[in-house]
Amino acid sequence: MNRLKIGWIGLGNMGNPMAKNLLKAGLEVTVFNRTKDKEKDLISAGATSAATPEALLQACDVVITMLSNDEAVKEVFESEQGLLSKDNPGKIIINMSTVSPETSRYLATICSKKQVHFIDAPVSGSVKPAQEGSLVILVGANNADYEIVKPIFEILGKVAIHVGEAGVASAAKLAINYLLGLNLQGLAETVLFAEKNGVSKEDMLNIINQGACGNGITAIKAPAILNDSYAAAFALKHLVKDLRLAKEAGLDSPLIHPLYDSFVLAQEEGLGDQDVMAIISSLKNK
Ligand code: NAP
Fold this sequence. Notes:
The chain is an alpha/beta fold and 286 residues long. The chain is 52% helix and 14% strand.
């Protein structure tokens, strides 16, 4: 596996620390980012740069994409100098961005027409787990491809869970992000309700996190609420996208609709580029 040459496309909040972990593990990594400036950090850490996604695929055995949304991923695969613009049979492409199950199946189909192997591997966990290499990686792949790339997932995550063929992992990711949205909305509503009735947010967060209702996300987001500071670890606009994709994939439960509307409203109020926990700033004014 040490001989596998890795290509990385998308050096945003998640892609940057994830690609860095591959370099730290001693792998040869080539990067491509639409905004070239964001490649500098990785190049200083030992990566080389490719001019186009196609050139990157040609130079590498495995290419990983970590991009904003379905449109960005499709563009990187299908554009004029995109990943599939020339023939590179036998290569493996792993999409770790959160996209719809339908897009993942579509990407698997267009890859297979070019004899390229496609894996969908979205992640649960935000910037800190990305930095620490402790993401939970959801894998949609056939068994043979999964065995080849498993060592890469062992560097990026604390666990990889192989849930089925391409597309199934994207469905699992939308499901877990629905639960994430419910947690964030519930946390924000709870803290605001308590504050309105004389309980400080410090005390309320302590009560939540010391008790059985506390969980990973309530602990991670407590400092942001205390400091009223919402620099994006996971941008709110991305959760709006994920909840929309979940609805489009058939989620029609009692809470998805008000939850989606709440995050859409926050985005319309200008909070899209802030962290998901900024939902509390939107709810505060209601
Ligand atoms: P981000 O910081 O917004 O970075 C997005 C990346 O996509 C950037 O490299 C951007 O390039 C690139 N991009 C966007 N549109 C493009 C296009 N049309 N062509 C080429 N490149 C394009 O996003 P992120 O937070 O890293 O998230 C990436 C993915 O992981 C998303 O699908 C998100 O839902 C998912 N995710 C995020 C988190 C989290 O906590 N942040 C956690 C789990 C999953 P530029 O630099 O040129 O803009």
